[in-house]
Amino acid sequence: MSVLNEFASPKPDLQADRTRLFCRSISLLAALCLPLLSPAAVAQIDTSSVAPHRYLVVYRNASIPGDAEAHLIATGTRLTQRNEHLGIAAVQSPASQDDATTLRLLSAQPNVSYVLHDRIVSALRLRLRPLAITSRVNNGAQPLTPPTTIGRLPTHGPITTAPPSLPTPPPPPPPPLPSYDTYYTSTPQGWAVQQVGGYGNKVPGGPAHGPWDTTMGKGIRIAIIDSGIDKTHPDLSPNLALNLTEVDQTAYPSACDDGTPQDQQGHGTWTASLAAGAIGPGTGKIIGVAPAATILNIKVLQRMPASITGDTNPADQCEAGEASGLLSWVMKGIEDAVTNRADVISLSVGATADLTTGDGAGLLAAFNQITYAAAQANIVVVASAGNDGIDLSNPRYVELPAQSRSVLAIAASTNPACAQNTTLGATCTPGPVSLAYYTNYGAPLNALAAPGGSYPDGPDTGVSGWIEGACSSGLPNTIDGLPADSAHSYGCFNLGHTTYVQAMGTSASAPLAAGVAALVRAAHPDWSAAAVVAAMRNSAVTLPGVSIPLVNAAAAISQPTP
Question: What UniProt keywords apply to this chain's record, in alphabetical order (predicted)?
Fold first, then answer.
């Protein structure tokens, strides 16, 4: 199983080696890096991300026996987590015990179906650029620059003629811009939310009428299973109803994170804001697809130190660190979503299993069991397709959880106001929607598409190929640094305590589609999860030259009962 990462900032040169990493600094802040893959590139898939001395014991009949812990102790292992609904136990072996011995002893225990290695998984890496807003308080925010008119028709008011003998009076001063929702209402930065159907109800910035005339998602619970959420962010705090964490630092320690539900990496906050960023006075600068939906924050990833050649400084390693966690935490997070009555689950994490290995086949079986249980609990499960740019038609490999049972996989599409162009120095020009160059694809995904963004990027308040969303300032009332004391923590990726960021990657696609699922569920509360997914599939828009249909909330809401 591979750690699939998501993307953060530069503009690549296609004439250079497409498989190397591209990096640049933005606003004097180092940006993250990602490989640029050609459409025909064959990605090298890493399936070796094993968490040392960590195992998943899958019991028969999805039931952990009452005496399981005693039997595990007899093998020299320690039970660290119980997934009661699914009959899966996470265990840890002593460092002195070799892998083959541990697998043999665990497999021989009563009622054990099979044993797997626990894995290290990561949030899908993002390309990033920070936005100008730095204040967390609405009335203290820096003023926006005048909104661009690129890609918009001019608005013409009535023409009046003053008497020739009188001078034309000066026009009245424009009303002050509101201090909330301005990235959506006064700039083109809300393009991704609008592309999937987040508009209407006469909200400025998008079409006056649309899905929001019917519903904004009120009453629907979206579980964000990710790196946590910034509970103090004005775009998220109004909708946040649950904060819990499955991060166990005794099992997988990190000096870069304190393990609490608070997001100290940025990824979870960004994805949550796209699904259900709040709307109206007293909120932040953006609006999500389902702005009245309830957010359930389930943290399963934490900021982990990066490996930097020649640099052993913990502060540097943490600054460059990304969100990672154990597969067992992700599995438990899905169970948490079921327990807390989620209606929709959004997963922007991913890994690839090699089905020619016993471990890979077992991982697929375990994930199938978990995601099917969520679907049986009437939950729509949405997952990112991944960013390796590979054709998953090869039956040897499977993307998890995107290809797990009953999961709706979402690939990444682009902005028609800023057509995909990966040429170095390119600027935004209108063009057709396409699949993003980095997105995984292939018939076995059975995917739909939603915006993930692509090159070129654009200014903070202008047309951009990237997607703008909220970001985390880490622990409240702290500055950037190791969270060894109450005065420091990390926040928005490696950009410091930044509250908004432009980024791209399939991590955007899943929460945008999850927001659409929330709108459909709110509009049709009697529909099952399967009916919601069927409506989204039946109404998805097929565009010329795009092999995967695009999610469309307006059409999905209008579908007859599937």
Answer: Hydrolase, Protease
Reduced to 3 states (helix: H, G, I; strand: E, B; else coil), residue 396 is coil
What pLDDT does 122 receive? 80
Single-letter amino acid code for the residue at 368: N
Tokens of 272: 């949550």
The pair of three-digit structure tokens given for residue 334, joined into one six-digit string: 């899905």
Q: Using CA atoms, how far apart are residues 176 and 172, in angstroms rounded to an integer? A: 12
Q: Mean pLDDT per segment of 10 residues, for the chain of length 562 residues? A: 35 30 23 34 50 94 93 94 92 95 96 93 65 35 30 28 49 71 97 98 97 98 98 98 96 94 97 98 97 98 93 93 93 96 95 87 92 97 94 92 97 98 95 96 97 95 96 94 94 93 96 98 98 98 94 97 80
Among residues 509, 560, 428, 360, the alpha carbon closest in space to that of 6 is found at 509
H or E element in which residue 378 lies: none
Q: What are 345's strand-pairing partners?
A: 223, 381
d(CA 279, CA 81): 38
CA distance 541 to 449: 9
Q: What is the dihedral of CA 365, 368, 373, 377, to 10 degrees?
A: 180
Q: Residue 31 in contact with residue 8, Cβ under 8 Å? A: yes
Cβ within 8 Å of residue 394, ≥6 positions away: none
Among residues 554, 350, 556, 548, which one has the least CA distance to residue 450? 548
